[in-house]
Design brief:
The protein is α/β, with parallel strands linked by helices. The longest helix has 21 residues.
């Protein structure tokens, strides 16, 4: 395309404001590429990353080491290899994940507001597998006050309603464990959480949701806070509709905002972090086991596979499309999304 056919241009365009998209934007910024645009299909930041429990699985992190965990890359690799169950995953990808996951967390910890807590009592799912550990491989975001975002707190997606006490008070995974199994001190913890919520009158005048964010919303809020400090722009209500390629390279994107189409030239790269396709019935029927229904998913309602379809239109290859993080869901009448 000629220069006059572009509406504007940036160095890097990121599609999506979940953990992946915001992390990509921050890493580009910290590495010197600061002409960045983030687009978000919805009106809020975070997507499924925000509504989720926020946990990540990164063995041998500096958080785990600081907590005294005994682990090794070799044990983590043995565990991953044994839990692939016949899936053809290149060994190089496994090695890259295990090597660079801890580096990523260290990088974000040193340069941004991202903080995590190592979970001592969160075991690997297949505890009998070789290389499994009983804790310290899964981490959860450190809680953060929504007020740190200033007026931008209104742009946040809250953690799933089933992970808020009375649909209002956020809690961490550690706190949830303490309360659910009634560990010593659970009554005191419950009382403190309710009292802290009640006495926060200034925040109650703004919203019924607790000021203290936990789990997925805390992870996104910390990334979002870091993005705001760098003044990286986010354009809401903007949907990726097309990747534009020239000579076997993506040189721009087409987006739709307010019913208007724009073409944005991208000088260095496009990051596709716009979520999955769990809310697209046609794609579910094409790739997932039958029967399948969009109403069964607790994912973001806007996850319709836009980025996937844009890539496929250019001939992008896909792998493991039949797989997912499977769990039973329960559809409760009058609730906006299913419970896990």
């Amino acid at each position: 395309m000629t220069e006059g056919q572009w509406d504007r241009e940036v160095d890097v365009l990121v599609a999506g404001t979940g953990n992946g998209g915001l992390t990509a934007a921050l890493c580009n910024w910290e590495m010197g590429c600061q002409d960045i645009l983030i687009i978000e299909k919805g009106t809020k930041v975070g997507g499924t990353s925000a509504t989720s429990g926020g946990g990540i699985w990164v063995p041998n992190s500096h958080y785990a080491k600081a907590a005294g965990a005994e682990d090794s890359p070799e044990a983590a690799k043995a565990y991953l290899t044994n839990t692939l169950f016949g899936e053809d995953v290149p060994e190089a990808l496994i090695d890259a994940y295990l090597e660079n996951g801890p580096k990523m967390l260290r990088f974000l910890h040193d340069r941004t507001d991202v903080r995590y807590e190592s979970l001592e009592h969160y075991p690997d799912y297949y505890t009998n597998m070789e290389g499994a550990r009983e804790g310290h491989r899964s981490l959860e975001p450190t809680p953060v006050m929504a007020s740190e975002l200033g007026p931008h707190w209104k742009n946040m997606t809250w953690t799933h309603h089933m992970m808020r006490m009375f649909n209002r008070i956020h809690f961490t995974q550690v706190e949830a464990h303490t309360l659910m199994v009634q560990l010593p001190g659970w009554k005191g913890l419950l009382g403190r959480m309710i009292w802290d919520y009640i006495r926060d009158i200034p925040w109650r005048l703004r919203t019924s949701i607790s000021r203290r964010l936990c789990c997925g919303s805390a992870g996104v809020a910390r990334l979002y806070l870091s993005v705001l400090k760098r003044e990286i722009p986010i354009e809401f209500g903007t949907r990726l509709t097309k990747l534009i390629a020239e000579e076997n390279a993506v040189t721009g994107v087409e987006v739709e905002c307010g019913g208007q189409r724009q073409r944005i030239r991208v000088r260095k790269g496009v990051v596709l972090a716009a979520g999955g396709f769990e809310k697209n019935q046609a794609l579910r029927e094409q790739h997932l086991p039958a029967p399948t229904n969009t109403e069964w998913s607790a994912g973001n309602p806007l996850n319709e596979g836009d980025a996937l379809q844009a890539g496929l239109a250019l001939g992008a290859r896909t792998r493991l499309m039949h797989d997912a993080w499977w769990t039973t869901t329960l559809v409760v009448p009058d609730e906006p999304t299913p419970r896990l």
